[in-house]
Recover the amino acids of this structure.
């Protein structure tokens, strides 16, 4: 299965992956009008300090703890290995946040959990964070 991987030594900490992710999942057609003056809720997050920065997103685990822990059954793993959230079923209990060892889940603007779903519903071919990374620190490949 193809997954998003980050080469920390190439990450500039510019946060462009976050903006591209937020735009790709906004439903808007123009990044400026979709994001200007609004808080963004990306499904990928830049962590680190002035020495090392890296992007954190869902790793689509083979044996996902988040899916097992979801009390509402909102998280599921498809045949393709991608872990998805059915937003209408999420009750915002944060159990998935507590059990994810990678810190990949976060609440969206409405309080419902969100996570990287590899932009599969956006019909872009590859995740927006990968396309928008100026230094090619984020890749979408099978390893």
């Amino acid at each position: 299965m193809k997954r998003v991987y980050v080469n920390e030594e190439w990450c500039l900490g510019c946060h462009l992956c976050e903006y591209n992710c937020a735009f790709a999942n906004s439903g808007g057609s123009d990044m400026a009008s979709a994001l200007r003056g609004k808080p963004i809720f990306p499904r990928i997050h830049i962590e680190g300090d002035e020495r090392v920065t890296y992007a954190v997103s869902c790793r689509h685990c083979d044996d996902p703890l988040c899916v097992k822990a979801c009390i509402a059954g909102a998280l599921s793993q498809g045949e393709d290995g991608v872990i998805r959230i059915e937003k209408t079923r999420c009750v915002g209990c944060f159990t998935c946040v507590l059990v994810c060892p990678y810190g990949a889940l976060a609440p969206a603007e409405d309080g419902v959990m969100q996570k990287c779903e590899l932009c599969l519903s956006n019909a872009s071919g590859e995740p927006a964070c990968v396309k928008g990374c100026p230094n090619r620190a984020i890749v979408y490949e099978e390893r």
The beta strands are 3-6, 45-48, 53-56, 75-77, 83-85, 106-107, 113-114, 138-141. The mean pLDDT is 92. The helical segments are 16-24, 31-35, 65-69, 95-99, 128-132. The first strand starts at residue 3 and ends at 6.
